[in-house]
Amino acid sequence: MNQTLRITEIFYSLQGEARTVGLPTVFVRLTGCPLRCQYCDTAYAFSGGEIMTLEQILARVASYQPRYVCVTGGEPLAQPNCIPLLAALCDAGYEVSLETSGALDIAAVDTRVSRVVDLKTPGSAEVGRNRYENMAQLTRNDQVKFVICSREDYDWAVSKIIEYRLEQRAGEVLMSPSHHQLEARSLAGWIIADNLPVRLQLQLHKYLWNDEPGH
Questions:
Q1: 74-114: per-residue pLDDT in tens?
Q2: How far apart are CA 101 and CA 182, in angstroms?
Q3: C-alpha span between 157 and 1 (Å, rounded)
Q4: Are 126 and 120 in contact (CB under 8 A)?
Q5: Phi, psi (deg, nearest 5) at residue 150
Q6: Looking at residue 41, what is its pLDDT?
Q7: In this structure, are residues 130 and 145 in contact, taking their beta carbons and an 8 Å threshold?
Q8: 7-35 pLDDT, tens per residue?
Q9: What is the pLDDT of residues 158-192, one digit of tens each?
Q10: DSSP letters of the chain?
Q11: Cα–Cα distance for residue pair 151/182, rounded to 1 Å
């Protein structure tokens, strides 16, 4: 029997964040997520979707002739067949990233994949779901992301960077202001004042397409 996944959408757009921001990328958005972050911008991916085989997914991705592929959600790792999908995308020659909440084990993910692990801050309302065992799995090919809702979130994130030496474990440590909750200028000022070893990102897709599905 063919391996299958429930897919919300597959589309070609510009990467809005992380290491490959601004680069044309195919997004494979898997359906379903066990978390309910208060600022979630993809609630439409919680349910529904279309059952597709790995072969169908790979064919759709190949039709765009991309260099970069991002597997996202929802929470992609909530579907076990995400693991063979990631390996198959790497085998096809793409530069692959995975956007994951970090609530689920990342150990089985192909090491060729750049795992973008979103550590949930207190302001997300899901801080209790963080799986800190994942921090020991990080490599320089991986990225750690914090969505910052307040000064309290920022201070918490700084404490985690220090505790887990994230700037040494991961290739990138990223901070984004929660859209409509925190001014980007405020976050920028805090990062500069603390000389913090992180990259500020502004989630390009929100400014270009206002989080419309398919972008």
A1: 999 999 999 999 999 999 999 999 999 989 999 999 999 99
A2: 20
A3: 44
A4: yes
A5: -165, 175
A6: 87
A7: no
A8: 999 999 999 889 999 999 999 999 999 99
A9: 999 999 999 999 999 999 999 889 999 999 999 99
A10: ---EEEEEEEEEEE--SSTTTTSEEEEEEE---S---TT-S-GGGSS--EEEEHHHHHHHHHTT--SEEEEESS-GGGSTTHHHHHHHHHHTT-EEEEEE-SSS--TTS-TTSEEEEEEPPGGGT-GGG--GGGGGG--TT-EEEEEE-SHHHHHHHHHHHHHHTHHHHSSEEEEEEPTTTS-HHHHHHHHHHTT-S-EE---HHHHHHTT-TT-
A11: 9
Closest CA relative to residue 139, chosen from 182, 160, 110: 110
Cα 2 → chain centroid: 27
Q: Exposed, middle or buried, 154 (CB in 10 Å: 0-12/13-18/19+)?
A: buried
For the chain, the residue count is 215
